Amino acid sequence: MITIFGSSTAYVSMPEYGKSYVHLLQESRQDVHSYCMNGYTIWHANYMLPRLLTERNNSNVIILHVGACEAMTMELKNFLVLSTYWLNFGEVDEWFRTYIVPKIYQASSDLLEGKQEFYGLLDGSEFFALYKRVLKHLEGYKVLCIGMSKPSDDLRDIRKEQAASFDFAIKGVCNLCDWAEHIEVSELCEGEVVDSNHLTEQGHKLLYNEILKRIN
User: Fold this and answer.
1) 160, 70 in Cβ contact below 8 A?
2) Nearest residue to 198 via CA among 160, 164, 148
3) CB 174 within 8 A of CB 181
4) For strand 180-183 and strand 117-118, is the pairing parallel, antiparallel, or unpaired?
């Protein structure tokens, strides 16, 4: 059984909403279960994956596709909405209190001063620590870790730097965990990215074929 845990990047093919690699896997196999979330995806993964795998302990392959939401620049109001949602409905652990709560204070102050932009929910080193924690839960499974897409050329350099730092973190954690493999999407699907992270239908086909090589 394959369990996919990913953000919208895994499920959305742009710009015409064709088939994603998740849809292609579900069409070609009968043993694929998938879970989609956005916002604090790395916290969702840490909170939900151990519970889901306890319920479905016959999974042998995990596809983990998270990080795009945490990496990318967004409007301050969107950051505050995401944070308020997690405060109300998520698990507020020591990592959230350490990494996010100080940013909530800063974002609130910036908003009062008329600023509009917030530079990422996490930086690369913070994401590394959280990603490592999630992979520790998955020891004993074969884990395919989908790397970050390379943002399209028309986006600002800061988004490209954010994506590169998160991809470096994913690769670094995989190097520490012999049950995990990093799939380098930035090279595999170069030129097949519509915005900061969403792939074209052709990009999803390329990723689907690479996944098949790793699981067959």
Assistant:
1) no
2) 148
3) yes
4) unpaired
3-class secondary structure, 36: strand
Residue 182, amino acid: H
**Which residues, including other chains, have CB under 8 Å from residue 21's CB and lie 6 or more apart?**
10, 204, 205, 207, 208, 211
For 172, half-sphere exposure in the C-beta direction (CA atoms, 13 angstrom radius) is 16
List of domains in the chain: 2-73+120-215 (3.40.50.1110), 74-118 (no CATH)
d(CA 46, CA 89): 14
Query: Rounded to whole angstroms, how far apart are CA atoms 182 and 172?
Result: 9
Is the pLDDT reported for residue 126 higher than 80? yes
Residues shown for the chain: 216
pLDDT tens sequence across 41-83? 898 888 888 887 776 556 689 999 998 888 777 788 888 988 8
